[in-house]
């Protein structure tokens, strides 16, 4: 991975933390969103790991780089293997067609960024 890619991912993480801290203190709507997120991604009939993999595929289709970073990391923390993450990326490619092949490149960079966690 290029240094620029590494820096971009670190910047996404930093920006998210800054925004999260600010919004948590200042926005009731954001707090409601994080409550929804917590409930949506908690274990139920589907384990959190599978929900994160689903969200990763959606993130690829909508080309949300910050989302891809978050859901790859959360999937890894939830026990997803490199192969499971790759398969979720492949599903995103299938669902999004040609444009999703471009988005998937960033997801692969994120996977490389977190390679020491898998």
Question: Helical residue percent?
Answer: over 70%
Kindly report the average pLDDT value.
Answer: 97
Distance between the termini: 17 Å
Query: Could you give me the name of the CATH homologous superfamily?
Result: AhpD-like
Overall CATH class: Mainly Alpha
Q: What's the architecture in CATH terms? A: Up-down Bundle
Spans of at least 5 consecutive residues whose pLDDT stays below 50 are none
The H-and-E topology, N to C, reads as HHHHHH
Q: Would you tell me the structural class of the helices and strands?
A: mainly alpha
The number of distinct helices, counting runs of at least 4 residues, comes to: 6
Overall shape: globular
Query: What is the CATH topology descriptor?
Result: AhpD-like
- Return Rg in Å: 14 Å
**Percent strand:** under 5%
How many domains? The number is 1
Largest sheet: none
Number of strands: 0
Brief account:
The chain has six helices and no strands. The chain is mainly alpha-helical and 118 residues long. It has a single domain (3-117), classed as AhpD-like.
Descriptive key words:
118 residues; mainly alpha; AhpD-like; 0% strand; globular
Question: Mind explaining what this structure looks like?
Answer:
The protein has one domain (3-117): AhpD-like. The chain is 81% helix and 0% strand. It has six helices and no strands. Helix 4 crosses helix 6.
